[in-house]
Amino acid sequence: MTEYIFPPAEIPSVAVRGSTQRYAVSRIFCVGRNYAAHAREMGGDPSREAPFYFSKPASALTPSGSTVPYPPRTQNLHHEMELVVAIGAPLFRAATEQAQAAVWGYATGLDMTRRDLQAQAKAAGQPWDTAKGFEHSAVIGELVCASELGDMGRGAISLAVNGQLRQQGDLADMIWRVPELVANLSQFYHLAPGDLIYTGTPEGVGAVQPGDIITGAIEGLGEIRLTIAAPE
Ligand code: MN
To answer: Which residue pairs from 208-215 have beta carbons closer than 8 angstroms and sit at least 24 positions apart in sequence?
Structure first.
């Protein structure tokens, strides 16, 4: 048996609807601009250029229903409501037609973003880690097995802050659809069970403040909820 100097951290995991078993997470991949209107609002070009990725540590996972402190070193914490894909089979250098079979399930997600740090990083050509990969930045609802869902190629996706609608879109508006994303990501990595993919956000991203309650929903997946508390 391996002995460790310090006790290892708990394995990050996600609740599964209708099951007592949890989905253990090893990696969190995120897709950059994947809805045309959001690409435009971020000053980008919504053309079908190859998708690009960044990642968050699995330790950033935070279950829906949590209350989290407003994070340090930002004045502009943004919500990004996203469909999350959970991989359930090994996949490497796959074609689009092979990719859907490797999708185990789906969840609602929030890609919380320190937008000011992201803007500084972009301007300086620096990595996005402090903007995207901070503690509590990967909020996730219950996972739902793909076999229980219809085609997730379309369906309403929305987010409200304190009950006021901020983001509203449709999964059909993705520039790169789920099988295309999974196939493309598999060109770069040996995808495996435990890999989550945050698939990008529709337009309407914006700032939240301490005391705000964020609620989001995706058709078929139900709600996600996050409360922002005072900074520590
Ligand atoms: Mn995002």
So the answer is: 208/77, 208/78, 208/79, 208/161, 209/70, 210/70, 212/161, 212/162, 213/161, 213/162, 213/163, 214/79, 214/110, 214/159, 214/160, 214/161, 215/159, 215/160, 215/163
